[in-house]
Design brief:
mainly alpha, 79 residues
Length: 79
């Protein structure tokens, strides 16, 4: 159970989701900081919404990366 929490909480939400959102919006607005997309501990509503968006985007990126790796492994006949 702890491994799932590390994977979903740490990898998907905090790494993939946060960085994907940050670099995507950084293209359009050069003045953004990573802290703008992190969970705000003081505001519960903002904390929930940022965490939800990070998780949702991170999950999509994780699924796309998984399919990409499986496709490459199949392409090179390693599966």
């Amino acid at each position: 159970m702890t491994l799932l929490e590390i994977i979903f909480g740490g990898l998907i939400t905090q790494f993939l989701g946060l960085n994907t959102r940050y670099y995507f919006f950084k293209i359009f607005n050069k003045n953004l900081k990573k802290g703008d997309f992190e969970n705000d501990k003081e505001d519960i509503g903002s904390s929930f919404s940022q965490g939800f968006y990070n998780f949702f985007i991170g999950l999509i990126v994780f699924i796309l990366l998984s399919f990409g790796v499986v496709y490459l492994l199949d392409l090179f006949h390693l599966l």
